[in-house]
Design a protein that fits this description.
Distance between the termini: 84 Å
Number of strands: 10
Radius of gyration: 38 Å
Helix content: 40-55%
Order of helices and strands: EEEEEEEHHHHEEEHHHHHHHHHHH
Number of domains: 2
Bound molecules: zinc ion
Number of helices: 15
Structural class: alpha+beta
Length: 395
């Protein structure tokens, strides 16, 4: 750098010349009003400014080369691009045109580079954006029988640690409760099966294929069929929107996606079942939760059920969350995939549902249920008291 600045018209550089050893030598360039001169330990030569050709070259176009048709095989170069601004070049005919050409080439080069970068970035963004739809498409190709098998596998793991209340009287009441909701589901793909799990915590969850489990604690805490249906509508939406399957495919990632693309559906199923335990600890994204709220709300309306129940149940859940004494109970004994422990931002969701409620045309003619909810709760309470103590409690 210091050397480059020794004199205004001297520039460190080099030259190719057949007379130099190995045809090349480093030295000094000097620009006069008529020539570009080159001097080095091996000698010197000069190129006339009239007719001189200027080009960029070398790695990353770091160097400026000067050539002249009268001196074939010779060229001089420097990495000091300030040479182009030398006074002798300022008013030289032909030189300005060549400088402009260099600038244009540089700009085009940068534009091409920027274009390549933009294309790569767009492709990456595109892949990222396409990921969710891609996972959705693959999930849509999973046969419903597989989803059922997946759900049953997980449910077996859960019921090995939890007790179901399979009393026929309770089951009949449960059908009266859930029938109108199922009638509001547009998809015919799933046959929903509802189970009551003996568990005091406020929770419910649904598994791929259509198994829905409701904790006895939630049924006892609710004050109307609509409140329970609010939770179940949300849970059912996780099934119809294949959130569990999608989340699993997402987690399994490229293997699942490539396998499914190449028709290895058997392999995908094997991997899904093998990893079904992951469903137990599955946490849905906020997008999935919001989606389940939206779908659940729509299903309630389609079943002519007052959706206000969903808001009221969420408010109860929020209250339970706030009470530190009850919080332990809320989280549940079981590591179940949904409902409460994995639902952050209940307040935000209530606000959103309130907005939806405010936009609904005021109507009073929602359907009524063919069961007396209080009687159902009493029946549940009495069956709970008749249940033999569980293995855990015996210890
Ligand atoms: Zn959920």
């Amino acid at each position: 750098m210091l050397l480059n600045m020794m004199q205004d018209d001297s520039f460190e550089g080099g030259a190719f010349h057949p007379g130099f050893p190995k045809g090349r030598s480093s030295g000094t360039l000097r620009v006069s009003p008529s020539h570009v001169h080159f001097t080095c330990g091996n000698g010197s030569f000069e190129l006339p400014l009239d007719g001189v050709q200027v080009e960029e070259g070398g790695a990353s176009d770091r160097l400026i080369f000067f050539k002249h048709p009268h001196n074939p095989g010779c060229s001089v170069y420097t990495d000091n691009k300030a040479i182009l601004n030398h006074a002798s070049f300022q008013h030289h005919r032909g030189m300005q045109g060549q400088k402009a050409a260099i600038a244009k080439r540089r700009w085009t080069g940068r534009a091409v580079l920027a274009g390549v970068f933009t294309t790569v970035a767009l492709v990456l963004v595109g892949l990222w954006l396409a990921k969710a739809p891609m996972v959705g498409v693959i999930a849509g190709q999973v046969p419903v029988s597989w989803e059922e098998k997946l759900g049953e596998t997980v449910f077996k793991q859960i019921t090995s640690r939890a007790r179901l209340m399979e009393d026929p009287g309770l089951q009949k009441q449960l059908e009266l409760l859930t029938g109108p909701l199922v009638a509001g589901v547009r998809s015919e793909r799933y046959k929903f099966k509802f189970h009551i799990v003996e568990d005091a915590s406020l929770n419910a969850f649904a598994l791929p294929g259509g198994i829905v489990a409701i904790h006895s604690g939630l049924l006892l805490r609710a004050e109307s069929p609509e409140e329970i249906i609010g939770v179940l509508a949300h849970e059912i939406a996780h099934v119809t929107r294949q959130h569990g399957v999608r989340k699993m495919i997402e987690t399994l990632g490229l293997y699942a996606i490539l396998g499914a693309l190449f028709g290895d559906t058997e392999g995908l199923m094997a991997v899904l079942v093998e990893n079904s335990g992951a469903l137990l600890n599955l946490k849905f994204s906020r997008d999935f939760e919001r989606d389940a709220d939206e779908q659940g709300w729509a299903t309630m309306l389609a079943g002519d059920i007052n959706p206000r129940g969903m808001i009221e149940m969420f408010q109860k859940l929020e209250k339970e969350h706030e009470d530190p004494k009850k919080k332990a109970g809320v989280m549940g004994k079981l590591e179940t995939p949904d409902f409460l422990s994995t639902h952050p931002g209940v307040k935000t969701r209530i606000d959103h549902l309130e907005e939806k409620w405010a936009k609904l045309p005021k109507q009073t003619g929602y359907r009524t249920f063919d069961l007396n909810y209080k009687d159902f709760q009493n029946m549940l309470r009495s069956r709970l008291s008749q249940q033999p103590p569980s293995a855990k409690e015996k210890k």
